[in-house]
Every structure is written in structure tokens, then in C-alpha cells.
Amino acid sequence: MIIFIVKSMNIQKLLLKDFELRISANTWNQAEDLVQAGAVQRLRELERHFWVAQVHDGEETHETEVIITPSRIKAFACDCSGPGRRFMCAHVAAMLVKVRQFLDQKAIEQQDRAAEKVAKGSSRLTIGEVLKSIETEALHDFIQEYAKQDRNFSLSLKTWFAGAVQRGENTYAVLWNSLLPKAGKPMQDAAMRQLRKTLGDLNKRAARALREGDYRLVFEIATAILPGIAALEQNHPTAPVEDLWASAQQLIGYLMELETAALSPELANQVRELLLHALPQKALDRHFRDKMLLYLGRGATDKATFGQIEQHFSSSAPDTAGIEVLLYCVAQIERGMPEAVAKILTGYGSRPDFILETLSALRRLNYPAAILPAIEKLEKLIPFTPEQQRQLQQLSYYAAQTLGDKAPQIAYLKRQFLDNKQQDALTRLRELSPEEWPELRQQLLGILEQMGDQDRLAAFYTAERMAPELIQLLEKSEDIAFLQRHEAFLLPENADFVYHQYLKFLSVHLEAHFGGPAAQEVRRNLQSLVQKGQLPLVKRISDELQRRYPERSALPEEMAELFSSETRKHLRIIG
């Protein structure tokens, strides 16, 4: 692995002691989980300041490397990504935590050894001993004084214990708002780091509250943070809130884990409102948003939940509506009315791309029963482009396959063969409906004959192993390229027919053309058979052409070009 320096991060300021303040909260949380799981293994300092380790993330083991001189992170690398990566991954962050722990422990041991030299027999002083030995008032004074000196300690203290403060308002919202710049002032990097750290700490606090069954506390944290991030995005459009939303996914996940039956109707209603307002955030991972859609949609069997979803749908503007429409479709399906999807999407006829996107999302969410009737109706009402129609047909085919509905599958496969010349569509048709195939076969044959498309008809004869019919069709053709497209099916059983057809086409060409160019064109056409391994047949055609046109001095030379020395030897052996 080659160590590389990440230039997008101000690595000159990346210190080992507090590097977590300069990476995303999501990465830091993942790194902490890896460390707690014992994922960092074989940590060692290969050379001075050059550390390596293996990090197992549950799926793969990654090789990580860092250079630290002496407390500054100079470079890092991980085999989970290449030199183009812009940010530190969780594997490297977890390794740095272990390096820091190792160096801290080493420093403590050095201090202990030094203390032992001064006073032998003295024991190490532990935090537990100190806490047991001091008065509450003294501890209070220390915390207050230390909080004045250390901003991070102060912030962590307020984050962890904000819920204990009784002020008649949401103290977590007060804490969050205190970290935001005043109106009109730009968002500084230091403020964003504090917001990320606070959000990470609040995620942990909410996780603990969820484990303890304190659902009200989970809600209080969420109701402070989720609207807070949305407000930050609105008031400071240039603020990089993507990392905040990525970290907030954990908090949203905790909301979806709340046991609805244990909530009061009022609290359950407020939880759904929070989720409904967070759902449109595009910074959320798509798979996570799908999880939210299914959670809210499946809850629509409850009248109150459906009322909230319907209100959000009704308040969205038709020209800009997005995920609210998809959620409303999911809610109707879950309420046992899949036919409503067609009616809903008809109202967005001026946005065919959006309709296609919504139907594709319903496929992703596994609602095939709603897709088929919707497409059948929408195709009649909305002028989709040919490409959009192709995508709609693919969606119909998926839905029909999933539901085991033969008719739409047959219609799709017929179009694939007749319109797009897809040979494998015939095979799938035959396998799909062996009982109906004879009748369907005749229908297709009649359509092809009526169309007069020689290529499609030849493809049909080939797929159905109808050699006599194909030969009859090819005999009428005056195009050697048409023969070459289908000759592989006829060989070797019908080699004589192919032989005579080549002689016919090439003789006509030589009668009308002369010199080197004419001989070169003969060679180019015979190359088709050479590539198919039909060397004896090529030799027969070549010999006959030279016999017929002995005066063409360029012809023998061009024919010789068709065969390498090994090929000529092979032809002599086979006669």
C-alpha cells in the first residue's frame, strides 16, 4: 500500500489529540464502534513514526497505515479506498484511536516509573479513588472551573445533562441554538465542528435513553435537532449540513424504533410529524429514506397517520412535489387501494420523468401490484418519449414476472422481438408459455410476413430452427451481408447452399469490377467464413473463383492472404 496525503483536509492542523473534531461525526461514531468491538488488530510501529494495523469491520479486514510526527498526523492510507478519497475513513480513525491510547498509556507508564524513582512504594491514583474521597461541593467547584477552561469539556457536560435542567422549554434546543452564529454572520468551521461533536454526543444520549425506555427523552432530543438542522440549512445555505444529516440518520432511526403502543396519542402524532418533515431531506441515504417511506406508509392503516400523510401530500405544489407523492402512493397501497396510484400520478402528466421516477421507486419498494394497472392507464393518457416508454415496459415486465401474470409478459417479449430484434425474447416466450406457443408462433410469423422485414423474419427462422424457410428467404436476396448475418445457423449442414450463394454473389461482383480492388472485396467477404472456422469451404470457393476467372492476376494473391502458413498446412492435410 502507498501512503498518501489527503489534501482536501487541512492536514497540517490534524493533531492526534483531537483529530475527531476535524472528521465527520458519522465517521467518528463508526470508528468508536470499531474500537469497542476490538476490530483494530496487529497494531505496531514498523519504523519510527510509521504505524500499521489491520481493521476488521465485520465483512473485510483492511490494511491501514499512518505517519505521526511526533503528535501531528502527517499522512494516512487504507485499502478500502484509493488516493482519490477526500476524507478519512472509519478504519483509519479507529486505528488512530488505538495509537493514541497506546501512546497515552505509554506516557502514563513513563510518568509512573519516574514517580517510582522519587517515592518507591507509592501506588497509582485512580479516578474512582478521587471521586470517593471528595465532597460533592468540591466536585461541583472543580467542574465549574474546568468547564471555563476547556470548551469541549463544557460542551460535553451540557450535552449529557441538558435533560436534567428544568426550564419549561426544550433545553436540548437551547443548547443547539447556542452553537449557531448570530443572524447575518457566516458559519465558521469551528462552529460546524462543535455542531458535529454535539450531534454525535446527542446520538449516544438518545441511544441510551432508548435502551432505558425513556421515549420522551429520545423525542426531546429529536425535536430539538431535526428542525434545528433544517433551520440551519435555511438560514445558512452555504453551511455543509450534509454531514449533520448523515449523523442525524441515527437519531431518526431511534425514532422509528419507538414502540408506538407505549406512546401517548399526542406523542405518537408528534413523532410522525418529525419523520414526515425529515423525509424530504436529500442528504439522507436513499436506502435509509426507503426505510422511512415503508415505516410511515405501513403506518397509514392508522387513520391519524394517514391524515398526516395526506395533509403533507395536499400541501405540496404539483410542479415541485417529490417524495410526498411517493409516500402518498405507498400509504394508499398499504390501505389496500393500489389502483389509486394511477389516479395520483395522472395529476403529474406534465412531469413524465417524475412519474417514471415514482414508479421505479415503487419497484424498489416491492409494490408490483400497483405498478401494472398504473402503467396501463398512464400510457394511454400521457405522451411519454420512446425511451420513457421502453423503461415503462421494463417496469411492467418486472411487475408481471413478480406477480406471475403471463399476459403482460407475453406482450412485453413480443415487443422486444418485433421492435428491438432481441433473439432471446423468443426463447423466453417459448419457455413462458409452452402450451400457447404454437398459436403464438403462428401469430408472430404472420405479423413478420405482413411487415416484410427480411431481417426479423430470418431471425425468427433461425430461432425456430426453420432451415428450409431460411434458405428459401436467402435465395431471393441479392445482399451478401444478409447471407453473412445468418450463415452460422446453416453451417455445416447446409454448406453446399452457402457455397453456391457465395459463388453467385462474388461472381456478380467480379463481372462488374476489375483489378486489385475487386479481388480485395472478394477477400473481405470470405473473411466472414474464415472467422467462423470454415476453412475448407473458403478453399472450395477460392479455387472455383480462380478457375472461373484465371485472367484475374490479383485474385490468387488476395486469396493467399486469407490463409496463414499453418492454415495452408491444415488445408493440405484435410485434402
Description:
66% of the residues lie in helices and 5% in strands. The radius of gyration is 37 Å and the shape is elongated. The chain is built from 28 helices and four strands. It has five domains: 11-116, no CATH class; 164-284, no CATH class; 290-402; 405-465, no CATH class; 482-573, no CATH class. It is mainly α. It has a four-stranded antiparallel sheet with strand order 1-2-3-4, with helices on one face. It has helices spanning 25-36, 90-118, 127-133, 136-149, 151-161, 171-178, 189-211, 215-235, 242-257, 265-278, 286-298, 303-314, 323-334, 340-346, 352-364, 368-381, 386-403, 406-420, 423-432, 437-451, 454-463, 467-475, 480-490, 495-512, 515-531, 535-548, 554-560, 565-573, and strands at 40-47, 50-56, 61-68, 73-78.
Rg, rounded, reads 37 Å
Gap from first CA to last CA = 59 Å
Number of helices: 28
| Main pleated sheet | 4 strands, antiparallel
Provide the β-strand percentage band.
5-15%
Indicate the low-confidence ranges by residue numbers: 2-10, 571-575
Shape field: elongated
Q: Structural class from helices and strands?
A: mainly alpha
Q: Tell me the domain tally.
A: 5
**Level of helix content?**
55-70%
Report strand order across the widest sheet. Answer: 1-2-3-4
Total strands: the figure is 4
**What's the mean pLDDT score?**
85
